[in-house]
Amino acid sequence: MPSISAAVDDVTQRIIERSRDTRKAYLARINALGDAPPNRGLMGCTNLAHAFAAAPERDKIVLHAERAPNLAIVTSYNDMLSAHQPYEHAPEKIREAARAVGATAQVAGGTPAMCDGVTQGQLGMELSLFSRDVIAMSTAIALSHNVFDAGVFLGICDKIVPGLLMGALSFGHLPAVFIPAGPMTTGIPNKDKARTRQLFAEGKATREDLLASESASYHGPGTCTFYGTANSNQMMMEIMGLHMPGSAFINPGTELRSSLTVAAAQRALAITARGKEYTPLGRMIDEKAIVNAIIGLLATGGSTNHTLHLVAIARTAGIIINWDDFDQLSHAIPLLTHVYPSGQADVNQFHAAGGMALVIRELLDAGLLHDDVQTIAGNTGLYQYTQEPWLDEGVLAWRDGLKKSVDDSIIGTVKTPFSADGGLRLMAGNLGRAVIKTSAVKLEHRIIEAPAIVFTSQDALRIAFDNGELERDFIAVVAYQGPRANGMPELHKMTPILGVLLDRGFKVGLVTDGRMSGASGKVPAAIHVSPECFLDGPLAKVKTGDMILLDAESGILNAQVDAAEWDARTITLPDLSRKTVNMGRELFSGFRHNVCSAELGAVSLFDD
After folding, report:
1. Which residue positions form the known binding site?
2. Contact assessment for residue 317 and residue 282, using Cβ atoms and an 8 Å cutoff
3. pTM over 0.90
């Protein structure tokens, strides 16, 4: 096994030192809970009767005997969300898997699962980020009955997996296994979908054309097949050892997918405190596991949303990371994949080319991942995740994954990467701190100096485009989109418009304290600007016409304004009342009031 690279080790040790006190406190808390595992036989009779009143008679006997583990199922099933529709019958499959090994399983609770694809550009998107914290809380409520020995967590999409993991980590004395449902089968090519979107933005395609294109892309059960936040989640769960090896991108409705669900449930039951392989989640997700997750994100060109979510997840486990850690690792980790939006392949093609097993092997062999970590698959380290599942005459088994990509236009090698760095950069200057995803941005577009045009909504930008006011070089400054202002919605509605202008030969860029989609694309976008405008962040000082330098190569984000004039400018808060009522937004005023900055994970759950 190669020794870990100096760059990776340096960041890891820095995180360990920074987190020493908070991690110690977290471990003490979960260790205390682990010393007093659920003991249903000692519960009050009324308590216990409530816990299994509706259970089948056989399960009641097993639960009362208190000799076998009881598995919590926390599910985010709904049949509106294509990625989560396959979970409809999973609980029964899991219950049967538990009974087959003499144990029990119960649905402990459900969590909300909203679809960012449905809410993009709609009022509901302003609840999207806060839904992560609601999911974390609902997961904690599900587990709070304290009658479970482990949990399996059914979730895939954007805020759902981070929320489930945060909730599970609050019960870190319990083992946890995450069960994916897999991506939908491949639809129309991503380039065709993107082209139709741009034609519609230009008025050259009808709404019927657009709907037909989108429906051919998003056409069945499973996750969307581009490499956005949902599929970045699955990569992350795999590389952190929370999936059964190789299970992230197996299509729903297949025999292999079903077999992996059964195996995941039985594995969760095997690693409880009642057995010989006790693997509590809170000890398993340590500083090295978090660093591995960041490295996986960088090596695959994953979603910028995880510069928020990973910070929040780590913080829940007493681990403190920040954007400097992402930036330093990005300079050391090569980009190994070209999956849309950084390439034309989708996740099904990525999986067929070698998938996660090959990416993990490449990184481990180069000393760019920590192998000495615990996983739910055992204590043999992360190399176990270089294997892939298959059915050997109908029986689930694992074999060595590919050692070389079958398509080097999709998966490269450490020696021949698509880029020498991970394509995620920290930007800083007199406008604050921000992140930018460069993996899909051509080199000639990574440095732009142009006058600002200030907007306070993506709808305002759309109107300006429709009126022909954007036929020039400019940097769109979209202000007051941070978590305190309006919940930090994704601003994906602007992507086709800015892409059209870029294709027309104009120099365009974006600076915002909001988010972009996990499918951030070819337009250079400095996002998550912190401090946000609502908290008097300097981005709120920008006026239309100010020259802005967005230099993704050097990490510079500056307003080119005389220093004395810049310091003298005052900030006037716009009327944001329309952003805080209707579509349920009034219920989240407490979240907006308590939420911390983007760089701290935009979390509303903790006292800061």
Report:
1. 157, 224
2. yes
3. yes
